[in-house]
Amino acid sequence: MTLAVRSGPRPKTAKVAKLGRPNFFVYATLAVFVLGSLFPFYWSFLVASRDSGMLTERVPPLLPGGNFFANAAEVFDSVAFWKSMGNSILVATSVTLTTVLFSSLAGFAFAKLRFRGRDPLFVFIVVTLAVPTQLGVIPLFIAMSELGWAGGLQAVIVPNLVTAFGVFWMRQYTVDAVPYELIEAARVDGCSMIRIFWHVCLPAVRPAAAVLAMFTFMTSWNDFLWPLIVLDAGNPTVQLALEQLQSGYYTNYSLVLAGTTLATIPILIVFLLLGRQIVAGIMQGAVKG
Amino acid sequence: MTVVQAPRRDAPPAVPPRPSFRQRLSKWDVKFSPYAYIAPFFVVFGLVGLFPLLYTAYVSLYDWEIGDDDPPFVGFENYVQLFGDGQFWNAVGNTLSIFVLSSGPQIVIAVLLAALLNTRLRGPTGWRIGILIPYAASLVAIGIIFANLFGNQYGLLNSILEMAGIDRIDWQAGTLSSHVAIAVMVNWRWTGYNALIVLAAMQAIPKEINEAAVVDGAGPVRRFFSVTLPLLRPTLIFVVITSTIGGLQIFTEPKLFDVGQGSNNGGSSNQFQTVTLYMYQQGFENFDLGYASAIAWVLFLLIVVIALVNFLITRRLAATEGGRR
Fold first, then answer.
1. Which of A30, A164, A287 sits opposite B201 (nearest CB)?
2. Where does the UniProt annotation locate this protein (chain B) (predicted)?
């Protein structure tokens, strides 16, 4: 006979009575929040799929019309949309790759290697999290101009090669994920440090690296102030192209919102596909942070 | 195995037993590679974090125009001018107002939302993703969409107000109304994100504590205030500090909310011009980098002070009854 410790699969009645099963009110409130979260996207698509005449109607229609592709085509004529897409993909991808690589390396060092000054250096990194990088844009702009980089994509990429957040994040994860025994064993086998990182550490921290990659990609994709300062109008990122669209064609909201829809759809798809991991990542980071 | 070829300077004589080249190499490897691994961060931070911060202070002491080869040194004149600059103080006021209107409700709602999400929901991940969706939106897209929703003539919100028989509001024109609209934008994007962070902390609270409170006869409300909130303190401090740093630097939303598109005025009478927007205007519209740098430094100090005050307040607030740590 099994020991009647706990009935595994359905602990319903007992616990529910204590902690309360969510009632209708809870679901309704959450549903309102989710609909509220989705609504601006829907509205933007709605306007984008009609002609801007709809906005003058007293009672706006609530279903999409059939003009989306026409509006989208006009977006392509108005701004360098595809070029800006390519730029954004290039920038976000390179920033993501280097950030994940350098952050994992530094995280490995801080979590698992012993070296003089390790702890103060790590504290220093954590402190730098509090320095708002936005406030450095003026000298950074001057430096980029001196280098002759202003206007080029490298001016957006280089300042973001690695972040304090990334180092902190990877270090927190590596501490638990990589056992010292494994590193010792690899050392005994004659592995160099970099091989240990590559073959022992990196596979173990892959989940954290994936989450960091998603965060970095999204942050980089959405960055606005710095590209606005350092890039010029002919070589924009997606966000800049959207802004140009708005300042140039401000009366035609269908066009402008067709642009925002076009720029949002890819990242929204990625988000919905990876939503589970992103959510898990945020929750995990929060516990440790 | 990697066979390392390196210049054989001082190859050891065959006599002494071991410190062979490879062993020494491996020793160096252990000793120095950690520094190599952390170096990228320090190089990049030095170049784009530390150097700019100090250099901003330096630039702020000059009358530095873009393209000026030999800017004249003016000492603290930029700061003196700044303290007498009505537009700057107006921007400070706007920033604080928008910050309070956004962070306050945002954190309260996030905590309540987290409490709802912390029940035994069906399909918890689905709800969490749904709540987090705004986080995926680009700020620029959101700025444009909300500017449209809040539009005076064709905005959906005003249409609804009108249908309900209420006068339409010129969201952009008023000071408070524009601040509310911008705060709504900020809150829409960040509330779900913060709710998830708070939720994570809630889930880390051991069940036994809550059960013990139940045994002691505490109702759900009492448990929330006396058990959950105090235990959330570190997380609440984290959320408050990050939203302080982010909120006080707010730029994209007010920039895109302007009817005069592409303008940096923050409305016809600067009614929603924030400090970062003013800094941008001074630096990159008026090309006065010296003055803009002074603004940046004052803003930095402001952020530090307010983050500190918020830290102290949060620590106190969440320390009610049985606060630990």
1. A287
2. Cell membrane
CB atoms within 10 A of CB A271: 19
Task: Say yes or no for a CB contact (<8 Å) between B141 and A56.
Answer: no
What does the DSSP 8-state code read for residue B5?
P
Contact B116, A26 (CB under 8 A): yes
**Number of domains observed in the structure of chain B:** 1
Does residue B238 form part of some domain? yes
Residue B81 lies in a domain: no
* Residue of B24, B138, B146 to mutate when probing chain A, most A C-beta within 10 A: B138
CB contact under 8 A, B130 and A30: yes
Tell whether B19 is covered by a domain.
Answer: no
User: Which tens digits make up the pLDDT trace of B209-265?
Assistant: 888 888 888 888 888 888 888 888 888 888 888 888 888 888 888 988 887 767 888
Sequential pLDDT tens for chain A (289 residues): 334 444 444 444 444 344 556 788 889 999 999 999 988 888 888 888 877 666 666 566 777 777 788 888 888 888 888 899 999 999 999 999 999 999 999 999 999 888 888 899 998 888 887 777 777 888 888 888 888 888 888 889 988 898 888 998 899 888 888 888 888 888 888 888 888 889 888 898 888 898 889 889 888 988 888 999 899 888 899 889 888 887 765 567 788 888 888 888 888 888 888 888 888 888 876 544 3
A135 and B297 within 8 Å at the Cβ level: the answer is: yes
The CB density around residue B176, as the number of other CB atoms within 10 Å, is 11
- Residue B62 three-state SS: strand
| CATH code of the domain in which B212 resides | 1.10.3720.10
| Separation in Å, CA of A282 to nearest CA in chain B | 7
Structural domain range at position B132 = 86-324
DSSP β-bridge partners for residue B62: B73
Q: Are A20 and B220 in contact (CB under 8 A)?
A: yes
Q: Which domains does chain A have, with CATH numbers?
A: 85-238+266-288 (1.10.3720.10)
Give B131 to chain A, closest Cα distance, Å.
5
- ipTM confidence: 0.79
- The phi and psi torsions of B238 (rounded to 5 degrees) equal -60, -45
- Closest CA–CA distance from residue B1 to any residue of chain A (Å): 7
Residue of chain B whose alpha carbon sits nearest to that of A136: B52
**Is B59 within 8 Å of A190 when comparing Cβ atoms?**
no
In angstroms, the CA B200 to CA B292 distance is 40
Which chain A positions have a beta carbon within 8 Å of B41's beta carbon? 102-103, 106, 125, 162, 164, 167
Q: Does the pLDDT of residue B322 top 50, yes or no?
A: no
Residues 6 or more apart in contact with residue B180 via CB below 8 angstroms: B101, B171
Residue of B nearest to A283 (CA): B200
